[in-house]
What we know:
The complex is a heterodimer. Chain A is mainly beta.
Amino acid sequence: EVQLVESGGGLVQPGGSLRLSCAASGFTFSSHWMHWVRQAPGKGLVWVSRIDHDGGSRTYADSVEGRFTISRDNAKNVLYLEMNSVRADDTSVYYCTRGGDGSFDQWGQGTLVTVSS
Amino acid sequence: DVQLTQSPSTLSASLGDRVTITCRASQTIANSLAWYQQKSGKAPKLLIYKASTLESGVPSRFGGSGSGTQFTLTISSLQPDDFATYYCQHYSTYTVTFGPGTKVEI
């Protein structure tokens, strides 16, 4: 069974840092592009970042470019999102998702990040 | 960047109704469109990809159509489990875009 389990969310002060993790199992992690998608409370889905199979290609939404860094460890089957200089509008549930054929075919349960002083 | 709009934003329907949700792209995107269902407090679930291909395990009452700039998600006979918010999504070489969502309620 495919599983994506996010962790690392919590309360962080504006300007602070946080690292999210996503543990993958039940599939060949190194064969898939992986993404982070977020959802602010009561709002819609927003794509954040993606990384290719071996980490050689990474893309970010304009809103997080230069502040967030996506990475992966294929030996440990883990996806990461390093969040720096966080702002109040980064408050969201962050989902780890598996890239499929132009879509996201598996999702984690999400981890909540709250940016507040 | 491609922008996606959805209509309606909210849809009131009854059990057994045929429901249609429209997604429009700001420029032609061929068939590079997916649809998701999200229930409150849960992660989204992929329903349709490549505009019309049903994801494995998704009930056949869900259908997708369209190409270019206009796409539709159809639920042929609304069931109790279908009351949720539905999102369209486009994936390109450079970015990913979601529509704003359509809430299907009683």
